[in-house]
Amino acid sequence: MGNEFIINGKNTFPGCLNISFPYVEGEGLLMKLKDYALSSGSACTSASLEPSYVLRALGRSDDLAHSSIRFGFGRFSTETDVINLAKKTASAVNNLREMSPLYEMAKSGIDLSSIKWTA
């Protein structure tokens, strides 16, 4: 089916990590991880619901841009903090995907780009 997550960017700032989680809406994931200081999209568009132009410039689709979360780590972040956040993120992503009809369709082999969606 493809990647379970996609790291956005190469040679990035060491304290910042941007990851897209296909078939998961970034805003929904933020709500599941509300105890952490995270944002959706890129720093340039974190206050907007528009897809990040930075992620689009990296070749990401609007869907992947909307499924991205920006993780920031500081000098007081510990290895335990990162491990706990990774576990909670994986759990939240799995939970959201369980509720996603698009994820189920993709899992069953349906090419979502071939579907003609109507409004």
Automatic annotation (TrEMBL):
Its cofactor is pyridoxal 5'-phosphate. InterPro entries: PyrdxlP-dep_Trfase, PyrdxlP-dep_Trfase_small. GO terms for molecular function: cysteine desulfurase activity. One of its GO terms (cellular component) is cytosol. GO terms for biological process: iron-sulfur cluster assembly. PANTHER family: CYSTEINE DESULFURASE, CYSTEINE DESULFURYLASE FAMILY MEMBER. This is NFS1. The lineage of its organism: Eukaryota, Fungi, Fungi incertae sedis, Microsporidia, Hepatosporidae. The gene is NFS1.
